[in-house]
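User: Run a structure prediction on this.
Assistant: Running it now.
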Amino acid sequence: MLSLAFLLTSCGTKTVPVARLGASEQSLLTAINQYRKELGKSALEPSADLTDLAHKDALRRVTTGGGYVDHRQETGYERMLTLAGKVQGGEDYGSRLLEHWKKNPVQRAWLEGNYAGVGVGTAAATSGAETGVVLLGGFSGGI
């Protein structure tokens, strides 16, 4: 019995940070993954690093009006695509923002691709509009 306990403890553990999503972020990720499921694509798995950057990006867009910033070096991903948009907040927020992106052929193609991780962040303006940012992360030569 002692050798089994030693074997289990000597295997080591790796702590993987969990992405924490608020209601709007979860709504958006659920809408995206439902769309991908309809296409026969796998669900996107949230990355804590990408989600943290997506939150910062969304907040920066709301507070300063700033645009895209390349965050690849901060995350370790070799390639990253950024989707950003603004719609009124509310119950079907994720579905409405997804519909906005699906109207653009390039953004629609990005939503349908394969990625190693996804980050989702939102920030609300005083007007009630919410900016959503989705970071799609991958590596050269594949997912």
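The CA atoms of residues 61 and 67 lie 6 Å apart.
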